[in-house]
Structures are given as C-alpha cells and as structure tokens.
Design goal:
It is built from 2 helices and 5 strands; from the N terminus they run E-H-E-E-E-E-H. By secondary structure, the chain is α+β, with helices and mostly antiparallel strands. It has one domain. Strands 4-3-2-1-5 form a 5-stranded mixed β-sheet. It is globular, with a radius of gyration of 13 Å.
Length: about 100
C-alpha cells in the first residue's frame, strides 16, 4: 500500500465520488488501487483520506479543533509518503496536540 498526498488545495465539500474523480482526472492515478489518497483543504484543519480495499471504497475525515496539518508547499500534483509519515501528518506530537 502506498500513501499519496494530493498537494495543493482540495475543495473539502467533495465526497467519495468527487475525490475519486479528482484522483483519476487530475492526479492520473487509479482510485481503486490499494492506495491511500490524502487531501487537505484551504484552511488546513481538515484532511480526508480515500481508500479502496479491493471490496469497497472508504472515506475518512479528521478535523483539528486548533492548529493545522503539516503539508507540502501548495503546488499541484501528488507526493508519495510512507505510512510512518502519514502518522506524523495525523499526530505531529503524538496525542498531545498539533502544529
């Protein structure tokens, strides 16, 4: 399994189908592969993760009450990261807080 960050800004009103279309058309990847696709909105406090496990598609969301998710510079494209790096994106300081 690979983890892909969709760098730049994503319209966080998009649901599962809208994000899958974005993966196909803009990122030129297959949303039905066994990969995780991570999206962040303009304000940086919300991420969505889209994953297809071979049986069905799942959409996960995480919103920070304060702080922002760590993210690459806002250019278009996609960046591959490890699952350990994804854990850092989700929990930059363990369970104590966020950036």
């Amino acid at each position: 399994m690979r983890v892909w960050l969709a760098v730049g800004r994503t319209d966080m009103r998009k649901g599962m189908n809208g994000l899958a279309v974005q993966i196909q058309e803009q990122l030129k990847r297959d949303p039905h592969a066994d990969d995780l696709y991570v999206f962040r909105g303009k304000r940086g406090h919300l991420i969505k993760i889209l994953w297809h496990d071979g049986i069905g598609m799942s959409l996960y969301a995480k919103r920070l009450e304060r702080g922002r998710f760590v993210w690459p510079a806002p250019v278009d494209g996609i960046v591959a990261i490890s699952t350990a790096q994804l854990a850092y994106v989700e929990h930059p300081f363990g369970t104590f807080g966020s950036v």
